[in-house]
Predict the 3D structure of the following.
Amino acid sequence: MARLLFLSHRLHVCSRALHDTTTTMARLWRCRAALLLLGLFTSPLVSAEHTFENTAIVRTVELGGSFVHVTTTYAVRALEDGSSIYTVALGEDEHKKTSWINAKLKGESVPLHVEHFGLNSNGAYLYTVALPNALKANSSANLVLETVQTHATYPWPQVAAQGGPQYLKYEADLFVLSPYPTAVQRTKIRAPSPQINAYSTPEDMSAFTQDAPVTKSGATLTYGPYNNISANANRDFVKDVQKRISVQYDYPAPVLEVTRLERAAEISHWGANLNIQDNIWLHNAGPALKGQFSRLEFQGQNYHNRIASSTLVSLALHLPPGVRDVYYYDQNGNVSTSRLRTTPSIPKGLKSNTYTLFEMRPRYPVLGQWNYSFTLGWDSSLADYAGYDKESGSYLVGVPVQALVPGAVVNEAEIKIILPEGATDVKFHPPFSAVMNSVSNHVTYLDTKGRPAITLKYEQLTDRHAGMIYVSYKVPFSAHLKKPLAVATALMGLFALAFASKRVDMRIQK
Amino acid sequence: MATKAYTLPTDIPTETVTNIRSLLRIVSLALISAAAISSRLFAVVNFESIIHEFDPWFNYRATRLLAAKGFYAFWNWFDPTAWYPLGRVVGGTIYPGLMATSGVIYNVLHALNLPVDIRNICVLLAPGFSALTAWSTYMFTKELKDESAGLLAAAFIGIVPGYISRSVAGSYDNEAIAIFLLMFTFFCWIKALKLGSAFFGTLAALFYFYMVAAWGGYAFITNMIPLHALTLILMGRFSSRLYVAYSSWYAIGTLASMQVPFVGFQPVRTSEHMAALGVFGLLQIIAFSELVRSHVSSKQFQTLLYASVIGMGVLGFSGIVGLTYKGWIAPWTGRFYSLWDTGYAKKYIPIIASVSEHQPTAWPSFFMDLHILIFLFPAGVVMCFSKLRDEHIFVILYSVVASYFAGVMVRLMLTLTPVVCVSAAVALSSLLDTYIDPTEPVLEEGESAESEATPQDPTKKVKKTTPPSNSGSFGEYLARFTGNTDKPRGIFGVSNRLIVLFNTFGMLVFFVIHCTWVTSNAYSSPSVVLASTGADGNAHIIDDFREAYYWLRQNTPEDTVVMSWWDYGYQIAGMANRTTLVDNNTWNNTHIATVGKAMSSPEEVAYPILRKHDVDYVLIIFGGLIGYSGDDINKFLWMVRIAQGVWPDEIQEPNYFTKTGEYRVDDRASETMKNSLMYKMSYYRFNELFGGQQAVDRVRGQQMPKEGPVLDYIEEAFTSENWIVRIYQVRKEDLLGRDLKVANAFEQGRKRKKTKPPVRRRALA
């Protein structure tokens, strides 16, 4: 046991060094080889030694479009003194879909440290959760594990008529896996509306329950309670006992996906401006259109306010308060069909929920499986995002990561932060670790040498991936003067040229 | 001692005056440039920084390629997405000057760390060059008269609508830079002729080369300069200056122009260029004879020489004629013929006649495009006669030729505009010179009483003045006209001067107002985006073109082939980035006729044509819903005519008219019309939009039949918000090998059977 703790600790330290914060672990790959070895080595130990047992597991699945929010509450009882590392297991499919993971004790808001343990040869992915206080034998705790799954639903049937309803299908494993025995377990699946078309009923459940294996009330399906489940994070259970369940439900909004997001944030000290520009490739992941698009029907549906739920007609985007000069265009130029309601910026330090509302309409209604790419950008006062630390003489700027399109997963994101020319001592602190980051040189207007630019790449960003990338840097006074000097030199050169050409006699013969 | 109407300060040193004059000139030119550029920005302010119309979209696309991939890729560009399945060798079939100019500007700016978007360079190129045009017009007019006339001419050309119509921001076409090149080449020619300078001749040749690389209208220069030279020779004004200027221009200019792949050997093989060659030969002969004459004094020898000169001239001319007969020299092209015979194009080349800018000019458009200048223009030309130096002859010739061409083709209004501005500036400047000059005429004793009796009559005054010291060609000319050359001429008093000056000023103000109004209202619409004003005065943007093109771009496979009438080919390639069958580069008449035939045939005839050309989508423009008159139904007769030109047995224009010879789309439309693919696509499900009410086509103002057309072989794929753009997908062959019409009928029949019984069953239960 001591050895296990030691190893876990090592892992812990290793990843601490790499990542400042604790939230996304799913897309971690850098230390994977090492972790994999360690995981292979240590996992039998984990599943073999029952330091905990689960008195109850309740899993709540909130069905959605692009995102499915899963909240699993583990009522945990320690079997030994000093148990502080609890292991959570996700099935293979679940692991693949999970893009955001977070654990905390019930009723508290401080997130616990979650560590991915690598692939378990037993067909489950293990994560360790470090409890804040080691538990004594027989004491219990309630651990809440929140995950967000992306690409977990798909349209079913895959095609829908232009005015037709949109049904999505969600599939999941019936049993929550755990390396510890579980006394009772239940899964609640909540659909956005009571209209659940179909759901699967697991068979041969006599070993776990005497009642109906699944009950439906309103928009909620309840699988369970199932009793006396052995430690099931192993291959035998996954192979023989585990079952797939599926739900087909009506989803009343378009399922949006941002296939690619390029955000460029340019900091300008001379303009006291922070410009943020997003290039967004939007895709409607709803059912494909059956037949062809008919404008006539669309106009009729529009008139009667009965546009199919899968059709994206307009989007309300929340921009930060105090933005100026918002622009919205695509490859063919300006898109004139949009409206903006601005709010003034909020003084620093004050919390406020105000935002600038940008109502945008794509050029055409985006039906199922159609694409629409566009560019949206705005300026805002640098003072709203930046601070100056007099002691160290460095600036601190926060650039938001969060994707603009509500309810849409971002498949890949590239965030580029362009600092002022001549910035030195550049440090950046992303709210969650990036897949890749790099520093490059970006040359733009009136630059002599170019500006340092930080590029961060992310994958599968969810609605929970909101936060600021904090960048600190120093700009020496001489760097500030570079631009006016360059412009002045160029203009002086021109004048000198004009002066010379006017006064120097170039004639060969007089 | 002549009296002065008003006193001028005399104690200013000459140097100060010169300096102030030069400063004022620079400031005025800068202001004129600013006015020229800013008045062209209406299009950007009212709409956005967008490429306008049709051809500019191709130029923009080519420039983007040039900027992205470099000059060699552009030079060797074969575009497989145009003229599908033939493709187009773009590098060898365009005038690359415009794109090269933008490419150079783009690269220079990027080298200076100014990463300007290539689109903005393209949009703002025409306004930028209009400032240069103003400057070159200033230089040109300066040679004719003086700086003040030059400034006036620059101001005129800067804001005159006739030029603005082709050079607003976003109008990224060859004409954008060509007018500057035209004026500057002419300036260099005049200067070379005046000085006998090989340097300016070479400069003229270089700018001529630039012009050849930039615009097909270079033929105008190619014929204007020889015409001028020939006229001078015929007037007995041959000089070594003319010889040097013309020879250096022709030799270098022709060799240079042959470097443009699209021109190639045309300068020695086509009739359009023969005049220049002929005059070149003539000049050599004359120069030679002059040389010989200066050395030989024998009269007999001279006679012999004259005979041989004439013989050589005749021989050369007949040689050219012979070569033309033999086919070594191509005869004039159809486009050229249509300039002489305005009915020619309509008979033989309907494609050229179908373009609206090739129509003869309507009278009001002269006033609309030139305003007061059109009245000042003849005055200026007449004044050129009074001096009649070599450059004045040039302006007179230019005016005559350009006036004719502008009358034949709306498009050539553009070449007339510069000379109108120059002549008008000369006239107006003479007028101002005469009336601003403070010198009063010296009166003879007897006449003073008479003049004092009618001091308010300026017309009479003019007759009785002495020639003013430094200006007065106007007065002189007027005097010559009236025959009173011996009487003193001039203007008395300040008030007389003020009356005329005030009127002139008022005219100029009206000119400016008119130019601004025309520019903002008539010439600044991008035509890709339409603007309308709602009942509440709110501007409403109709953006159907970009909507539909963007839909194509985003939601169809990249190798999709789109068929449309050729007008929209460049736009589809530029905005939707899809393959087209035909486009605005109308080089293959048969291909266009094929599209015309598909559009004007019934569905079952059109379908095999569509399938054979791999057409996936058919795009048409339909304005019937919102009253957009430039739609395909209105262009339809041209499609029919062009198709008829190739397939006279299958397509006949009269079949598309009603029995009474009307072009209708309602109940009374002919069967051929109603069955044509174009008609069906335009009105497919149109009457359903009116919800049982009578459907009305707002362009034609006709009521549509109750039963709309039925489509079997193609299906509606996308229609834009205001129904302007309608896109149809061509259906694939039926899987069971049936005719699609039969398959459709079968499917609909089955559907009816299937849907009815359940209702009955429910009723029973």
Observations:
- Confidence is low (pLDDT under 50) at residues 1-48 of chain A.
- The interface with chain B takes residues 291-296, 299, 330-337, 363-364, 370-373, 443-448 of chain A (CB under 8 Å).
